[in-house]
Amino acid sequence: MHQNRVLNPLLGIENPRESTRIEFIGGQNALEEIREESKKPSVVIFTLFPTSTKEIKEISDKTLIMPPKSTWFEPKLRSGISVHQFD
User: Fold this and answer.
1) How many domains in the chain?
2) For the whole model, what pTM was predicted?
3) Cα-based distances in Å from 61 to 46, 49, 58, 68, 83
4) Which residue segment(s) compose the domain that 6 sits in?
């Protein structure tokens, strides 16, 4: 929705995956980074609600592709850790 109603028609950003005009801020220090970025001239900041696991499942079941960074999760699993279901 954000892509179709804001990024493309108002800002002319057709492909957010390839645009150099978009930056993503995420993680535990995001609020401080957003504050710093907001002090810069000519910057627009959007904050979006996180995607629910229900929404991710619905989109996955329909084999659709979600927008970049819309499936950000924390805490991240460390490299080398695997998850295995035991019966």
Assistant:
1) 1
2) 0.59
3) 28, 21, 5, 18, 21
4) 2-49
